[in-house]
Amino acid sequence: MFNFIEKFKKINIPFFSSFQIYIDLGTTNTRIAVKDKGVVLTEPTCLGYNKKLKEYIFFGQEAKSIIGKVPDFIAIDRPIINGIISNFDSEAALISNFIKRSVNPYLSKSSLIKPPISAITAVPFIATEIEQKAVEEVLYKVGVAKVDLIEKPVATAIGCGFNIFAHKPTCIVDLGGGLVEISIISGGGIVVQKTLKTAGEHMNKLIYSYIYLKHGLILGENTCEDLKIKLLNFQNEEKTLVVRGKSLETGLPKSVKIKSSDVKEALLPNFNQIIDAIKEIVELSPPEVVDEIYNQGIILAGSLANSPAIDDFFANELKIKVKLEESPDLSTITGLVKLGRRRDTMDKLKVAI
Q1: Average pLDDT of the residues of the chain
Q2: Which partner from 28, 62, 247, 323 sits 20 to 30 angstroms from 287, CA to CA?
Q3: What does each C-alpha distance from 255 to 213, 215, 240, 241, 252 come to in angstroms?
Q4: Span 290-311, pLDDT tens digits
Q5: 58: helix, coil or strand?
């Protein structure tokens, strides 16, 4: 019976078209867009599980805001690590909640018979076939009738406005929360690619370690992220922020003043590692590709690209011009939306599992 229903949901009826949504399953944030409506949800990828009730009770921003403030029987879970689903049930519960909040209100305006939902989502280039299948199965579990997967660097390049089928190699550096994906794309595919797991979430841990060693202060996860977002800049502009944590010496509350230079010092080795990876990618590329990249420049996408003057920092280190997208954190979801409008292009680019 269940198989019959699933097959029926996937039947294409001309007057009964599917309801198209787009999902960016990010390590730090999950974004959902609806066809002709734009982005309808941006929420942290975390949720809270009550071990006594054996159910998920906090989702997204609410779950993130209570990290470190809850009793032992409430576990805060991050179901995606380094761009890959690490907890299937948690991710299914999270996406189900997000769809209920952001997509169902639009479905309720439809006719009496609700149209089946079809989704386009992105997966990291390094995702294995099993990991790709996990993404597909999560969406099927929450009620999506049809799922198309796209390689994330391809979706990001399209979101940045590039014609990826043109034979003009484009270098995209996606500075995300879980992964730094460095890709050269040309002729409808990825020519060279390198992925680092030292992205935004890892940088929060570096800031934690730096403050711990320099000031003897234990900070919370959200405080470390705030320091990165508010203080990190490459303009040599010295900002300060007073943070409060637990003193390593006394165990009591302690306040210290953190400067932009502290955050930059903590993260500079990590950024140098990204620079080295970009240089390695360029060195591995054919001479014709290198020439095109030098002429076109490198494109920065992802949430970390919002750091002031980060493009100037990369340009000075690489001796190649670097460009920033207007909304770098929305590049991937924008690419998925654009693909949804061009079904012929979508069919050429979707991942075959």
Answers
A1: 90
A2: 323
A3: 15, 10, 13, 10, 10
A4: 888 988 899 999 999 999 999 9
A5: strand
